[in-house]
């Protein structure tokens, strides 16, 4: 009886213990000097650590062992948590604005990252050749134990990188005008290049971007450069001028596939529910202008022919459609912009830190008023979204 009791206690304790992750960073010291950086959030708490020194954050759940303090690798990080999201970056120690700005230094040092969960190797990443002073390597979902590789080089660390595209076609827009304003109300301007890209060098703080182009409805975006000083990416879809309601969805690099759902009254009788699997014309027009299946968006819906009644707009996380526990939709940085009468009528940001695969964003009532909903839930089947 006593033995059974001890076994039960062991099982209970093992269930209560948080998972332990360990991230080892190694590199060729004859070719360069790397520095790992991990930023992460648990609930509403956010922190980051550099691998150069020993430190703790998030109530001791995020740890940097300190360079040279472990026999496992040059730099070692530990995460003692079964929840939260963590992003791992690499910088070269001497490649910054004040010293050597050689963009090949990271690549030359041949960095390699090993990720362990409870002592078991779950991923081994050899960073490929590339050019840039900062490199994003992966994101870890501690609850699921999933390592999402996203190896991407950036020209510098403290930058905002933006891509401006046409909301209907998805084509890049060159010579769009971008104005950035900081908290001191100081403003700078630039224009997008041939590929629709712009870059601003920034310091830590909050910034507002005002975006415009002739023939398109002007819009804006808010971006914050965090204390981790890692690059921030945005995608902005400009809508061609239009009097009807046009709804534009954009998001970040993860999840790969978000789907717009619009339901409402069909002017030809009955109701409709439009999404990527149910595309049909109303009054000779396909309301779903663009379906995007490979991250960022835009996914665009236009109500070309309205009818009397209520419309409802939602966003479904198709990538994580079978996961009740997923917070990836909530972490997607998804934004919805509603245009009409040749102006921006409303904008919405996905609520943070909620589990679910469906974001009910807003309704449009019979008086054409936009009513916010802004709730996330789990739906078993996308066809049930109304």
CATH arch. level architecture of the largest domain: Sandwich
Helix content: under 10%
For this structure, the quaternary state is single chain
Rg (CA only): 23 Å
What percent of residues are in strands?
A: over 45%
CATH superfamily label of the largest domain: sav2460 like domains
Largest sheet: 6 strands, antiparallel
- Total domain units: 3
Would you tell me which CATH topology of the largest domain applies?
Answer: Lipoxygenase-1
Structural class: mainly beta
Residue windows where pLDDT falls under 50 for at least 5 positions? 6-16
Specify the number of helices. Answer: 2
- List how many beta strands DSSP finds: 30
**How confident overall, as mean pLDDT?**
91
Q: What is the terminal-to-terminal distance? A: 55 Å
**Mass-distribution shape:** globular
Q: For this structure, what is the CATH class of the largest domain?
A: Mainly Beta
What strand line-up does the widest sheet have?
4-5-6-1-8-9
Briefly say what this structure is.
It is built from two helices and 30 strands.
Show the helix and strand layout.
Layout: H1 2-16, E1 20-26, E2 34-42, E3 45-50, E4 55-57, E5 62-64, E6 75-80, E7 85-92, H2 105-108, E8 112-117, E9 120-126, E10 134-141, E11 146-154, E12 159-166, E13 177-181, E14 187-191, E15 197-201, E16 205-212, E17 219-225, E18 232-238, E19 245-250, E20 258-265, E21 271-274, E22 281-282, E23 285-286, E24 288-290, E25 299-303, E26 311-317, E27 335-340, E28 343-349, E29 358-364, E30 370-377
Parallel strand pairs: 12-18
Antiparallel strand pairs: 1-6, 1-8, 2-3, 2-7, 4-5, 5-6, 7-10, 8-9, 10-11, 12-15, 13-14, 13-16, 16-17, 19-25, 19-27, 20-21, 20-26, 22-23, 24-25, 26-29, 27-28, 29-30
């Amino acid at each position: 009886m006593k033995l059974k009791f001890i076994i039960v206690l062991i099982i209970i304790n093992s269930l209560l213990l948080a998972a332990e992750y360990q991230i080892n960073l190694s590199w060729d010291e004859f070719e360069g000097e790397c520095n790992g950086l991990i930023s992460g959030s648990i609930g509403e708490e956010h922190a980051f650590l550099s691998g150069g020194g020993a430190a703790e954050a998030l109530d001791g759940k995020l740890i940097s062992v300190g360079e040279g303090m472990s026999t496992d690798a040059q730099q070692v990080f530990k995460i003692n948590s079964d929840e939260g999201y963590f992003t791992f970056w690499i910088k070269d120690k001497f490649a910054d604005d004040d010293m050597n700005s050689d963009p090949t230094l990271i690549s030359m040092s041949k960095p390699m990252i090993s990720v362990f969960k409870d002592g078991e190797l779950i991923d081994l990443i050899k960073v490929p050749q590339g050019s840039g002073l900062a490199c994003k390597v992966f994101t870890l979902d501690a609850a699921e134990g999933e390592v999402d590789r996203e190896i991407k080089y950036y020209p510098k660390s403290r930058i905002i990188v933006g891509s401006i595209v046409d909301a209907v076609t998805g084509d890049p827009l060159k010579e769009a005008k971008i104005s950035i304003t900081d908290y001191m109300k100081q403003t700078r301007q630039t224009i997008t290049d041939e590929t629709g890209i712009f870059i601003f060098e920034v310091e830590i703080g909050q910034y507002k971007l005002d975006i415009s182009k002739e023939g398109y409805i002007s819009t804006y975006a808010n971006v914050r450069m965090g204390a981790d000083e890692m690059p921030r990416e945005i995608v902005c879809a400009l809508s061609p001028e239009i009097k009807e309601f046009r709804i534009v969805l954009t998001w970040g690099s993860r999840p790969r596939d978000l789907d717009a759902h619009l339901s409402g009254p069909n002017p030809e009788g009955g109701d409709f529910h439009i999404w990527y699997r149910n595309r049909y014309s109303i009054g000779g027009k396909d309301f779903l202008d663009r379906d995007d299946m490979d991250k960022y968006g835009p996914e665009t819906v236009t109500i070309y022919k309205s009818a009397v009644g209520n419309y409802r707009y939602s966003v479904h996380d198709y990538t994580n459609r079978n996961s009740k526990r997923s917070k990836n939709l909530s972490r997607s940085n998804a934004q919805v912009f509603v245009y009409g009468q040749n102006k921006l009528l409303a904008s919405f940001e996905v609520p943070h830190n909620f589990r679910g695969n469906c974001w009910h964003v807003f309704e449009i009532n019979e008086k054409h008023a936009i009513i916010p909903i802004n709730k996330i839930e789990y739906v078993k089947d996308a066809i049930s979204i109304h």
